[in-house]
Each structure stands twice: as C-alpha cells, then as structure tokens.
Give the backbone structure.
Amino acid sequence: MSGALIHTFSDSMTMLRRNLKHALRYPAMTITVAAMPVVMLLLFVYVFGGALGTGVGPMGGSGGDADYIDYAAPGIILMAATSGSLAMAVSISVDMTEGIINRFRTMAISRASVLVGHVVGSVLQTLVAITLVTGLALVMGFRPNATVVEWLAVLGLLTLVTVALTWLSAAMGLACRSPETASNAPMPLQFLPFLGSAIVPTDSMPTGLRWFAEYQPYTPIIETLRGLLMGTEIGNSGIIAVAWCVGLTVVGFLWARALFRREPRR
Amino acid sequence: MTTSRPARAITATGLRKAYGEQVVLDGIDLDIREGTVFSLLGPNGAGKTTMVQILSTLIRADGGEFRVAGHDPAREPDAVRAAIGVTGQFSAVDNLLTGEENLLLMADLHRLGRREGRRRAAELLERFDLVEAAGKTPATYSGGMRRRLDLAMTLVGEPRVIFLDEPTTGLDPRSRHTMWQIVRDLVAGGVTVFLTTQYLEEADELADRIAVLNGGKLVAEGTAEELKRRIPGGHVRLRFTRPEDLERAARAFGEVSRDDEALTLQVPSDGSVRELRSLLDWLDAESVEAEELSVHTPDLDDVFFALTGTPTQQPQPTARKVNA
C-alpha cells in the first residue's frame, strides 16, 4: 500500500512537471487567469468604487470612513481563485482530447496522477495570480491590518478554496464533451461571488437573494477573509468556510476520479 | 510461464464486445506466440482498434477469456500495462513538449532515474533518426517523424508485447519502409508485435501469422502463404489485337475468363517469373501476338471478396504492366 502511495506521489510529480512545462511554455492561460481579477479590481475600485463606496462605507471595513477598496479587495482576491478554477476545466478538457492521455491509460502508472498533476499545477498557477492581485490591491491603497499569523491563515484559506474549486472545475471539464462546453461549465462558480458579499454587503439585497447570499459558500469564505485581513467580525464563518472547502474538494475529487475512470470515448 | 509448449504472448477465447445493439467483436479466438508478429487485417470499422483497446486495457470486453503477457487485462490491468506498449493510430505524443521531453516524460513514468532516463532517450533519438528534431515540438514534425517519436516513446519502457494499431496509415512509402524495418528489428530482439493494418502487403511483409477480421469475426487465419492460397484473384491479363489470337490462346489455356469485346483473357497465375516465362514461351512458340500483358496480384479486396463474399469497395487490383 505504501509502495502504491509512493508511486502515486512520484507519478503525480512527473505529471505536475509536465503541466508546469506547458504553463511556462504557453503562458497565455496564466496571464488570462491573472488578468481577469486585475480588471475586476480596477473596474470596481476606480469605476464603480466611488458610487458603491458610499453605500458600503458605514457597514463595511473598519469604520465609516473606510475606503471601498478595503471592502472589495478580499472579494476580488477570491475572484482570482475562481477564475483560476475556470481555466482548469478548459485545460483538462483540451488535454483529454490529446492522444497521449490514452497512452497514459495503457501504462502501469497511477491514474489519479494525471488528475493530481493537473490540479496541483493549476492551483500553483492560481496562487501566483492571487499574489499578483493582492500585490496590486496593496499598491492601489488596500490597507489590511492583518498580523503575520492572519496573513498565513489567509493564504491557507485561499489555498483551500482554490483546491476545492479546481477539483470541482476539473470534474466539470472531464464531464464536458468538448473544450468549448468546458469553458462555459464553471461559469456559475465565476459569478457566484457577485451573489454574495464580495462587492456589496448582503444586507443591501432583496430578501430572497439575501437569504441565498448568506447561505452560499462564498459568503462565509469572503467574510472570513475580510475578517482576517480587516479585523471585522468572523463569528462561525471560518468553520463554515473550511467545511465548505473540504466538502467541495471531496465531491470534486470523487467526481473527477469517477469520470476519468470511465472508458475513453470512441 | 513454465509450460512445456512455446510461451504465448496473447491468448483469447470467445472475446466479445458490443456497443449497445452493435456487436463489434463476436467471439474472437487468438493464440499468439512470443517473439512473433501477428497481424490483424481488416477494413475500417471491422473492430481492429476495439480489439487493441481491449487487449491493452483501455476498454473492457463483454465476455471471453483472455491473457496478455500471462495476465488477465480485466483483473490485473497494471500487470498487463507493465508488459505492453501501445502505439495507436492517432498519435499519442505530447504536442507541447519537445521530442526529447516526451521521451524523458516516459522515462520518468517508468521510473528509470535521471541518468538512465537520459541515456535511454538519447539512444532512442539516435535509433529513430530524431536527434536533430529532439529539441523541437512535434507540431513541426512530418507524419513519419511523429510516428517514429510515438513508437520511440512506447519503447522507453522496453515492453515485451507491442500493439501497433495501423502504424503506417497515412505515411509515404519511404516512411512506411522505415517503420517496417523498425518492426523487424524489434521482433529480432524477442518482442511480440500485434499489428493491425488494412494493407495486405504490410501483413505480408511483416507478419508470421495473419488473421482477417470482418464483421466482428475472424474469417481466416494463417500464414501469408496459407491465406494467399485461399485467395483467388492472382492472374495474368493478356490483351490481343486480333480475335483469332484470343481464340487460340483461350483454347490453349483452357478454363480462363475471356472478354471478346475488349479482346482480353485472364489466366490464373501466382505472378512468378517461372510462370510468366512459360506463358511467354508458349505465346512465342505458337506465334500468338499479345498486345499487352499485366500481372494482377491478390489484394485486400480479393481477400474480402473471397472470404466474405462482399468486397470492401470497388476492386482495384494492383497491376504491374509488362509490354509483350
């Protein structure tokens, strides 16, 4: 059993190297992944920020005079994680159309390693994008008051979120018959943060939407990030956020593994 | 492995596979000895690729008992995978990695270690004439080069049984001959090759035994010679200018098919020089003037016509024309 685990690990590392080489050689995808939240950040802070900030001011941030960027940055940093996951669905779906996948299937290697290599590669790419967006937010005037421990907790939570979304998105990519459909499948993951407290507080929403916004997974995640970074109330959001991440990771992993074990289409 | 009879690389009895209502393989029996080339011959859609996919653990059979390298692909897929290599009809190379990186990827997956992996990759690049292309991605390769890289990747793990699914389809004649030589070298090294092809010529060149697959069943099996003997269709076609020459020749050759309109005669022949010489000698001796002589060898269409009664397409016999 431990021998099998060692093989799974070394095969996964080989597959990870393969995927990282792809990413370095064709950086278009990484750039797209990072560009999307950067655009969001610029858009929400400079274009909508003035208007939205007036509404958010008294409720969000550390006080009435808080800049809107302090409210929106955690949500937009989270969007960097979601756009990373979107990329996974497409790139795994494209890879599945390659003949080399069938070669892997006829080799005495760990089957999970093909998926693990993809997911870990994509998570690393997404973490790079998250770092870029966070750095840009800081340059633009985002002033978190987090301690080193809180920053580490932020990194940990963002990694958990990215892992969960990437597995889910990998499964979606495997479920799609073509890369074209795979590029649309994780769209809901992309837009769900808007229906939560990422951009505006849920209190400002109509009742039905507010109920949805409060119970959807992104809201506790965003509230936890905001709490860690800005010192707002976290309450039980932290536990709920971690539970969502672990749950979605398990679902995504099992779903993806089941799909990859299916016989290849003729 | 300790049986007294020669070791078998692949055996199967009653192998079946259906996709819904469509039966693709309908009770296939195989018995392939180690160190031989077995060729599965059949038209497109005959089920050749399905057979390779089942034996190489890609898909499951619906029924039948079979062993590949001594193991059951359904129960011990990894034991089978450790012993086989597959080069499919559709290229199985990583298009974003260079030729060398593709080979090193295989070396890593076979856990050869860095040094051994590099040595093996360099050796295969050399052997398959890919040294110059080693640093380029397969997008820049010709069809023949891609196929060679594909096969080189298959060989990194030194498999004992190799599946080649239509390895020369779409290749130019020169690349095809290179591929044939590679297969011969492999077999000389003790490897068993399971080759599918639509070309009788290819099976004839390479295979120790040939099986013909049609409609999900093996309709014939044997050596190339055995099969050819069962296939009528090899003949010499003589064209005359004068009806009286046709008449005399027809009478002399006995049971032949003649065409009075075109003034042609089809004489059964294996196309050997000896038979041709005696034919020409007779024409000379009798002073019968033949305008044209062409030799027609049996091809896949003849095989199918003979074995199944349905040609795969319009017969287009390969002809070598000789002016007489």
User: Anything to note?
Assistant: Residues 311-324 of chain B have pLDDT under 50 and may be disordered. The longest helix of chain B spans residues 173-188. Chain B touches chain A at residues 19, 50, 53, 56-60, 78-79, 81-82, 84-86, 88, 90-97, 101, 105, 108-111, 153-154, 157 (CB under 8 Å).
